[in-house]
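Researcher: Please predict.
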Amino acid sequence: MQTTEPFDLLVRGGTVVTPAGAEAINVGVRHGRVAALGVPDTAPAAEVLDVRGLHVLPGVIDSQVHFREPGLEHKEDLESGTRGAVLGGVTAVFEMPNTSPNTDTPEALADKLARARGRAWCDHAFFLGATDANADRLGDWETLHGCAGVKVFMGSSTGSLLVEDDDVLRRVLAGGRRRVAVHAEDEARLRERKAIAEEKADPAAHPEWRDVETAARATRRLLTLARETGRRVHVLHVTTEEELPLLAEARDLASVEVTPQHLTLAAPDCYEGLGSFAQMNPPIREGRHRDALWRAVADGLVDVIGSDHAPHTREEKSRPYPQCPSGMPGVQTLVPVMLAHVHVGRLSLRRFVDLTSAGPARLYNIAGKGRIARGYDADFTIVDLNAERTIDTAWIASKSGWTPYHGMPVSGWPMMTVIRGRVVMRDGATVGEPLGEPVRFQGV
């Protein structure tokens, strides 16, 4: 394909994963967007990116991260969190509302957008948190610039956001039209069973306290109300075999996220090796649930992979259980951990792309992202599928300063991150200055 106008960037020599499959083609970029596919090696360009031997994937979108700003910047902030994202090959993130104060008003959303300006390394959007006080207003606010949608905590986790009552949840679901992201754990059952954690005082009791029924009961309640109100919901970090048939019966309304940690770790080994550093909500469970999640990935039931990046400091995680907080960092390790699963054949590279790029774009109606195609943002996660590395805490940018995958050998590694046609990470180092912008959504 010949053109007289030079490209701003020519990505040359790689294997490019497009909607048509993996192709050995060059990609031409103008004005931050894909301008042409299959251009000649000699096409004029202001900058040429030689990616021979590498795979060029659509930019990875991590649709569940907690970057802790404002109020909890000692464990993460928008700069360090997004820096970790691009070092790990992630080009866009959706950040959660359980900060201090919570992101539950238009003013709080505007504050986060202002904080991200000039500091965020990748593109971003922020969820509004649902509460009893704002349940009837969220439908008016969910279309605000930079808003990823509404997030509901049915069970308590880090922070104070909580919608445990069906009447309030019904009001939230009835009041808007965008897909609602939900942390589905039943708060009443958590309170009933809290003594298990307190008496055993051992992080290995975490999946006993926050048991299978805690998750399944919340998911059943959620799906009943989604059906009643006709509202689409996205069930975050699904962990149990028992929830999967419920979700399979509700495909017209419900979508499914799983995390790399629930696909990689399993009880009891993770608690024996990591202690409270393996503690998250919902918990890492025994191997039958991990196996069921992999079957759901293979069957197409799982829509997206999200990291649920939820950092806490080593000091906080080392407190006696259950006083220690739940959560672990993960945005920077999402790509290498999942590529390691690709390497051993647990999923194909095309399925990985669907779960981390096309899937989030489809569910949330993201404009111009999620695929390498003409007119789309020139967001690329460029990886070496044959690179053998060992994940090390020293590589982690998060202020938390640790990773549950320390010492894990992987095959497959992010080599470059390109956002809207500009290289922001190359060979393990950030390039230039933060250039992240708010994600755009169709019909918003």
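Model: Residues 165 and 390 are 45 Å apart (CA to CA).
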